[in-house]
Amino acid sequence: MAVGPSTIGDFSVLPISIPPLPSFPRPATHYVYLRRNAPKIPTATDSRSLFLTNVPIDSTELHLRHLIASLVGNGRFESATFEDEKRDANPVADAQPVQAARLLAAHSKKRKREGEDAERAREEEAARLPSTWTRPLRRSGGTAVVLLADAKSVEQVLKAVAKVHRSKKYPTWGVGEVHDAKRIPPLGSVWLKAHNRLSYPDKDALQAAVDAFSALFTKREQEAAEIAKRLRNEPDEDGFVTVTRGGRNAPASRNEAEEAKRKMLERQEKKREEMANFYRFQLRERQKEEQAELLKRFEEDRKKISAMREKRGKFVPES
């Protein structure tokens, strides 16, 4: 068997042995790539987290717990979050209108009260439709973030991965976990039969979920309407009051607000130009009056000089 590299870039390569299965009755080697977690937006737990990619498609938290335990022993693993779980963190987000979602998200910090998060979580749980799968399958080449007990555990796991390459004793995937039906539901035909059964949920349970969804939708729409009503009388950071459609409680869309703001700025600019033109008109009129006054004084002075010359007559100096 060819031996692959122990590292690729920033990633350490962890070979794991996949035991034979009825669908593929031969052992196989799968490669998981891991490194210290370094997300674009840092969090408080990054120093004790590992980022894993190319996790097996049947991965569960128990699989990863057993994998870490086989490397550094028990008591180091705390939790695991998979890529698809992050993406579906709010499965009932559509239980509110788009306008309500934007308003609630923008002003939720001002509205939070003690116990409100727990109440919302209960409402969303009640509005969630029954699952049709007993066990999810991960995307091929998917990722996960494993949270360990401390930063020292991260260093120990990375050292253990390097040691695996030297000893050639690869950890076995799913041993002691995947065969425990009480902890991890099995795959294969049993999994598909369970999916077929769950695809036809109890009518009462389904109706209860639909009713909870409708109630949550209505509640959040009312909350958004209350926020919109308050915003109509509160200026924002720039001093503008939220633009609303006539006869509606919800604020106008962002495009409409920007269009109204643009028109207002155009009116202000036009008014400034008109005032400037008015001042220029006054300046021109004043200049004309000054020129007329100068001409009038010049003509008066000219007449005075002519009169003085006529009165004095022709001057003849004495010899």
Automatic annotation (TrEMBL):
Ranges of residues in domain Rrp7 RRM-like N-terminal: 10-193
Disordered: region residues:
106-129, 238-261
Q: InterPro entries from the xrefs?
A: RRM_Rrp7 (IPR040447), RRP7 (IPR040446), RRP7_C (IPR024326)
Q: In this entry, which stretches build a coiled coil?
A: none
Q: Where is the Ribosomal RNA-processing protein 7 C-terminal domain?
A: 198-317
Q: Which Pfam families match?
A: RRM_Rrp7 (PF17799), RRP7 (PF12923)
Q: Where is the signal peptide?
A: none
Q: Compositionally biased, Basic and acidic residues: which spans?
A: 113-127
Q: Which domain of life is it from?
A: Eukaryota
A GO biological process of this protein is: rRNA processing
Family the entry assigns: Belongs to the RRP7 family.
Put simply, this protein is called: Ribosomal RNA-processing protein 7-domain-containing protein
What organism does this protein naturally occur in?
Answer: Echria macrotheca
The taxonomic lineage of its organism, from the top, reads: Eukaryota, Fungi, Dikarya, Ascomycota, Pezizomycotina
